[in-house]
Write a structure and sequence with these properties.
about 600 residues, alpha/beta, Phosphoenolpyruvate Carboxykinase, domain 1, Phosphoenolpyruvate Carboxykinase, domain 3, Phosphoenolpyruvate Carboxykinase, domain 2, nine-stranded mixed β-sheet, about 30% helix, binds guanosine-5'-triphosphate, binds sulfopyruvate, binds manganese (II) ion
């Protein structure tokens, strides 16, 4: 068969590909159609080219393994740019560049960069086919690794051309690995043109342009103009024993538990009663007010790009099963029989491994076998608890929005906002310890408003304003909550068991949404009535531990308010007054 030869009829797509090819000068152009036959052909080619290795097919059918360049293992926020005519548009938390200058620089780097390579054209959908929220992207890339990942992460191929028709309303994404050199690495967004150009990387969020680039940075920009919201949120469904479904969205910063929470398995006593959790999405939500005055959300993605380390049959069995077939593993370690391994995987630590850099590894080695940001790319169809709603073009009505960060101190396990604007304030003032998902700063607490600091495509103060505006548009807005799974005791141990036990917190949240649980008011928000919060059956977790988890330490909170103010001062030009007043109110309640 002649793979890669089927061109679309859409003239705008043809023009985009032709003009890009004229600059980049590839040896050939490969048009992705999304078929199964094409998939087999591309994996064989990737193996032949040495880009991927076939894993042990008895243990991991359809699974492959790739290593990235050690200089290219995470998102690069310092090399990520938003290019708009006016610098003020992107605000003080984004890197700005003038579009003309950035285009000139990048076109210089693109000139002839695909000589000797294949230019792949990936048409893809962000969102279910036929949804009014769905967007089309065309990603041009010279990386077969990107092609194979995008075929999992998005609805890629002919389906996208069909949705697009003859329209020219699509995101134009251009990616080249160049020579994978940080000196020539740019992740550049041109929101006014709906264009993304990504150069010099071959890793995850830098190069799978549907994900952070289109779905969040460009998406948030489009959402503000079009009246919807693009958020760094998981989406899940909680089904009660009576069969009532509540849909919940949650924003946690990168590597802070979205994938885990989205696939949560309720503890035995909840499961026995009939509580069920199903997954709609694990990273991104697009939300728009529906005709009934509720906020409706879709997951624009079709796969999971999940953190491998720490994932095991106890912490996240559904992720393990999702990544048990037809999955690409990046930067994990390899066993002698070509199985995958990472820190925190089930079973004994193997005596001999090949580490993520390709070097021999033993348990005595000083370095980690898998990179802390090593990942699996798994089709969402593999998830045993995938919600059928994940493919519903109408999306799901959201009852609760949860914010949460990784905080060793200060922040309680669970609290509820007094109302929408207080909730927006809680999201806007969020802080979290930095993780391996981005280069630099590991462990430091930084403000990460709504988990969107690296992903808002315009001024963060205006983004808060958009949240407040949306609250006015939604007659029945979701209730807003804040959680912290990561509070530590004096010895530095996590106090809350987390993972499946987070069901207990989730149950309180949906009970609150359904008017079925009481709350007590504190200075920072509403909290469960201690005697009513279910800790029964938790090992070594007493009423005192719960009180410790929920404790509001006034001194810590005064410091917290000072830290919050750093971000608010930075944003002073556009920070909505409501948020300043919310902060003042909190300060006076604390004093
Ligand atoms: P991105 O894909 O980077 O956006 O991140 P994510 O939010 O999906 O992160 P993920 O769910 O993969 O989080 C991974 C990290 O969070 C691992 O280190 C987990 O062990 C840890 N984690 C997740 N849930 C919990 C929890 O309930 N308690 C504790 N202590 N750790 C958790
Ligand atoms: C994140 O860092 O938030 C991710 C992984 O979800 S990446 O796609 O690399 O951005
Ligand atoms: Mn993410």
């Amino acid at each position: 068969m002649n793979f890669g030869t089927t061109q679309p009829t859409n003239q705008a797509v043809l023009d985009f590909v032709r003009t890009t090819a004229e600059v980049t000068k590839p040896d050939q152009i490969f048009w992705i159609d999304g078929s199964e036959a094409e998939k087999a052909y591309l994996y064989d080619l990737a193996v032949k080219e040495g880009v991927l290795m076939k894993l042990n097919q008895e243990k991991l059918p359809g699974c492959y393994y790739g290593r990235s360049n050690p200089n290219d293992v995470a998102r690069v926020e310092n090399l990520t740019f938003i290019c708009t005519p006016r610098k003020e548009e992107v605000g003080p938390t984004n890197n700005w560049a003038a579009p003309a200058e950035m285009y000139a620089k990048l076109n210089g780097l693109l000139a002839g960069c695909m000589k000797g390579r294949t230019l792949y054209v990936i048409p893809y959908l962000m969102g279910p086919a036929g949804s009014p929220l769905t967007k089309v992207g065309i990603e041009i890339t010279d990386s077969i690794m990107v092609v194979l990942n995008m075929r999992i992460m998005t609805r890629a191929g002919a389906v996208a051309y069909k949705h697009l028709g003859e329209s020219n309303d699509f995101n134009r994404g251009t990616h080249s690995m160049l020579d994978i050199n940080p000196e020539r690495r740019y992740i550049a967004h041109f929101p006014h043109d709906n264009v993304v150009i990504s150069l010099g990387s071959n890793y995850g969020g830098n190069v799978l342009l549907g994900k952070k680039c289109l779905a969040l940075r460009i998406g948030s920009f489009l959402g503000r103009n079009e009246g919807w919201m693009a958020e760094h949120m998981l989406l899940l469904c909680v089904e009660s024993p009576e069969g009532k479904k509540n849909y919940v969205a949650a924003a946690f910063p990168s590597a802070c538990g979205k994938t885990n929470f989205a696939m949560l398995i309720p503890p035995a006593k909840y499961a026995e009663k009939g509580w069920k959790i199903t997954t709609i999405g694990d990273d991104i939500a697009w939300m728009r007010p529906g005709p009934d005055g509720r906020l409706y959300a879709i997951n624009p993605e079709a796969g999971y790009f999940g953190v491998a380390p720490g994932t095991n049959m106890k912490s996240n069995p559904n992720a393990m099963i999702s990544a048990s077939k037809d999955t690409i593993f990046t930067n994990v370690a390899l066993t002698e029989d070509l199985d995958v391994w990472w820190e925190g995987k089930d079973g004994p630590v193997p005596a001999k491994l090949t580490d993520w850099k390709g070097n021999p590894w033993t348990p005595d080695s000083k370095e980690k076998a898998a990179h802390p940001n090593s990942r699996f790319t798994a089709p969402m169809g593999n998830n045993p608890v995938l919600a059928p709603e994940a493919n519903d073009p109408h999306g799901v009505p959201i009852s609760a929005i949860i914010f949460g960060g990784r905080r060793a101190t200060t922040m309680p396990l669970i609290m509820e906002a007094f109302n929408w604007s207080h909730g927006v304030y809680i999201g806007a003032s969020m802080g979290s310890e930095m993780t391996a998902a981005a280069v630099g700063g590991l462990g430091q607490v930084r403000r990460d408003p709504m988990a969107m600091l690296p992903f808002a495509g315009y001024d963060m103060g205006e983004y808060f304003g958009h949240w407040l505006e949306m609250g006015k548009e939604i007659a029945n807005p979701p209730m807003i909550f804040n959680v912290n799974w990561f509070r530590k005791d004096k010895d530095g141990n996590f106090m809350w068991p987390g993972f499946g036990e987070n069901m207990r917190v989730l149950k309180w949240i949906v009970d609150r949404c359904n008017g079925a649980a009481k709350a007590v008011e504190t200075a920072v928000g509403r909290m469960p009535v201690a005697e009513e919060f279910d800790i029964e059956g938790l090992k070594d977790f007493t009423a005192e531990t719960f009180a410790e988890c929920q404790k509001i330490d006034k001194e810590e909170w005064k410091n917290e308010l000072l830290l919050q103010n750093e971000m608010f001062l930075k944003l002073y030009k556009t920070l909505p007054k409501e948020l300043v007043f919310e902060r003042e109110l909190l300060a006076s309640r604390l004093s």
